What we know:
Elements: H1 9-23, H2 30-37, H3 41-48, H4 51-73, H5 80-92, H6 96-100, H7 104-112, H8 117-143, H9 153-172, H10 177-190
Amino acid sequence: MARSLEFDRDVALGSAMHLFWRQGYVATSLNQLLAAMDISRSSLYATFGDKRRLFIEALDLFSLRNNAMVDQAFNDAQPLLAVRAFFVDSVQNSTPTRLARGCMMVNSILELADVDSDLSQHAAKRLGEVESRFQNCFELAQALGQLDKTYSPEYLAKMVMTLNQGLRVSSRKNVSVQELSNVVATTLGLLGIKV
Length: 195
C-alpha cells in the first residue's frame, strides 16, 4: 500500500514555483528548494522526480495561472476585454515585489537559452499559449466588427506578446508602475482598447 503524502503537494509546488521565479533555475539549489517546500530530499524525489522535473511542473503551474488571467476575463461579446484584463492585472494590479520578478516564462527563456535549450523551449511553448489566447480574442473581435482588419489576428497577438515581454524585462529593471502603465495604455490604445 502506498503511503500518503505527509505534506500538501500543491503548497510545496507553489513554494518551489516562487523560488524558481525569484532566483531562476540555475541559481536555485536543491537545499533551498527543500527548505522552501518544507519537505525532505526523499519526498522531493518520490513526488516530483528531480530538480529539472520539478522546475517543469513549476513552470507549468505559472503558465496555468498566467493563462487564467485571459480565460477568466474572456467574454464572447467583448473579447478585447480579456486582452485589457491581462495587462491591467499584470501591471496595475500587481504588487511591487511580484512586478519586480518579471515573468517566470520570459525569465526562463532568457536564462536557459544557452544553458538548457529544452527547458528554454518548454518555457517558450508555454508563453505561446498566452499568445494563442490573444490571437483568439483578436479573431473574435474582428468577426464581431470590434476591431478593423488592417492587421491579422496573428500579427496583433505577436505585437501584444512583444509588449508583454518588454514589460516583463522592464519591470526587472525597476521601471515604475506608472511608466509601465503608460506604455500599456498607449499600445492598447492604438488597438482601440481603453485602459
